[in-house]
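Researcher: Here's a chain I'd like modeled. Treat it as a single chain, no partners, no ligands.
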Amino acid sequence: MHICIFQTGEPLHIDKGNYRPMRCMLLADKLIENGHKVSLISSSFFHQRKIFRFKSYKSIKVNKNLNIYLIPSIGYKNHIGIKRIIDHIILALNLHIFLKKKEKFFPDKIFLGYPPIETSLVMILWGIKKKIPIILDVKDNWPENFIEVFPNSLKSLAKLFLLPYFLIAKFIFKNSYKITSITDSFIQWIKTISEDNLSFCEVENKYFVSPLVRKPIKLTEKNYYDSKKFWLDLKINVFEKKHFSFIGSLTKSFDFNFIYFAAKYLLYHKPEYKFIICGLGDQKNELEKLFFDLENVILVGEIDQYQSKLLISNSIATLAPYKNNSNFNNSIPNKIIESLENNVPFITNNYGELKKMIDNQKNGIYVPNYTNESLSVFLRLVEDKIYLNQLKENAHQSYEDLFNFDKIFENIINNFY
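Model: Modeled as a single isolated chain. Structure tokens:
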């Protein structure tokens, strides 16, 4: 089969640097392994780095079974903002132009990343016109999460203003051949929005869960040496295992006060233990000010997948300070799965799917607030090795049971047939 994957906001095969492959790259590689041809359509703008791969349309033949098509847009600096919405509208218009001009482009199936809403609408309409089945891959609850940035007094007005987006989302969901998402909670949200009038059997066949797993990283001797040198050059000995780690975008998606109060608490009790924060984002300057007086917090900047592997695998625990909103409450983000992959428990203040998994799997710790009583868990992790080792064992087992890479991608591919 010839499969078209549309996905923005992820690294591609052509990107320079040791970026860890995400859904579109991994799926493309798996499909090719299974004898299929893949056309990957994405944005010329590289979301992770906030830079342009190219400023115009670009077609790149990676190999005989993989072609990448890049669609131009204006780009943006902030994760949330008017310019990002404008960027997505322009991206959708340029995608429409691309598909209209490419008359001989006719894949057998389409795997469509949602959001953005605007590009999803263009692909759905094109799929309907060409009678090409589309598998929708839903990873965020747009436009629902747009409303959450508004104060309670304006939420009703915001929902009215965003009504066209809700109607578009409903149309996209109803006209998808199949829909996959990262948790059962997300699937339930999609069903609520779409109001699908399907029989039980049809619903069961249309929806399936596929967590955001990634291919496990294996360090070569060179990867290991280079990553070890990277950390030692920063005067950080990760092998002492005296650190908690956060790796992700430095954006308003996270409650960094959670890390601030945890670090402040542990600085008083165990000052030799560090909190290592890695990543880039529009909150970088604010975080430098926030943590300025805490000598046990280290802001590293961007790191690659191998440096990340070495850091996480030697962490006491990873930090997952996701804000409590409907999007994150329904999610199990890939950073959580990456922690479990390395047999490392996670600590979170999120009371949604993450707390539910902690209650069931005992593979992490839920911290409900910033009181000393709640934060004392950090001290327990440092002092109680039996407790920590049990969490690590549970982290390993839950990864094998819930997030096995091969099983999940095999299930995705089986849904193309």
